[in-house]
Amino acid sequence: MNKPIYSFEVFPPKPDAPVESVSRCFAALAALKPDFISVTYGAGGGTAGGRLTCELAARLKEEFGIRPVAHLPCISYTKEEIAAVLKDFAAHGIQDILALRGDKSPDRPEKHDFHYASELIDFIRTKGDFSLYAACYPEVHPEAHSPEDDLRHLKEKVDKGAGHLISQLFFDNDHFYRFRERCAAAGIAVPIEAGIMPVVNAAQIQRMVSLCGASLPRKFTVMMQRFGHSPEAMRDAGIAYAVDQIVDLAANGVDGIHLYTMNNPLVAQRITESVSGILGR
Ligand code: FAD
What does pTM read for this prediction? Predict the structure, then answer.
C-alpha cells in the first residue's frame, strides 16, 4: 500500500508587502514536513510575478530543505518572458513546475503565444529537464465544452509530459472518485493529488466558489449557516470538515492530498496533526 503524497500550496505576499512577511509561515509549514510545497505565481506585469515565485521557491529549498514546485501560468506571457522565467527557475535549482494556462482576466491581457497549458508543457520541454505537473478539475473546468472534452485535453497534458496532477478544490469526495474512475478509463495513469481547501471563514468561501465553481454539498452549507457568523466555530468546523474529507480520501486509496493552506500554518498544523497517522507520516 503506497503512502499518499502530502503537499501544501502557498502564495506570495502582495507586491507592497515584504517577502519576510511569509518567512514565519514558511518555517511553520516546513516543520510539518510535507513532500513538497507549491508556490502560486505572484501578481505583477512581465516577469515580476515569476521572480517572486522563484525567490520564494528558492527559499523553501535553501532555508528549509523543502522541495518547491513553482506554478507557471502562460496566457498572459510571451515565449520570451516564459523563457526568462524558466532560466531563472533553473538558475535557482527549481526543477518542479506546475504548468498552467492561467485564468483569463481583463486586468491581464493575453499575449497569444500560448493558449493552453499543453502548449506550455511542450515549450518547457524544449528548455530544460524540468519535472512537470498539471492542474485537473474533478467537477470539470468551467470553460470546457463537455466533461469528455476536458478529459481529452487533460490526457494531452499527461501525454506531453505532465507526470503528476493536482486537482482543483472540491467539497464532495464523490466528485473526485467519479473523476478518478474516468481518468483511469481514459488511460491517465499518473498520480492525482486531491486539492483540499479548509474553509475557515465565511467570506473566503463565496470568493472561492465563484472563482472555481465547486459545488457545495448540503452538509457543507448547513455547517456554513450554523457556524459562519462565529470565527472560532467556523475555524473548528472548517478544519473538521477538511479532516473528514482527507480521512475518507485516504480510506479510498487517494494518491495524495494537496492542502490549500491560504498561508495559514495554524490551520495546516491542526489538520496535519489529525491525519498524520492516517497518511502514514
Ligand atoms: P488548460 O489545461 O489549458 O485548460 C483550460 C481550458 O481549456 C479547459 O476548459 C480545457 O478543457 C480547455 N482546453 C485545453 N486544451 C484545449 C485544446 N487544445 N483545445 C480546446 N480546448 C482546450 N492560476 C494562476 O494564474 N496562477 C496559479 O498559480 C494557479 N495555480 C493553480 C493551481 C491549481 C492546482 C489549479 C487547479 C489551478 C491553478 N490556477 C492558477 C488556475 C488555472 O490557471 C485556471 O484554472 C485556468 O482557468 C486553467 O488552467 P489549466 O492549466 O488547467 O488550463
Answer: 0.97
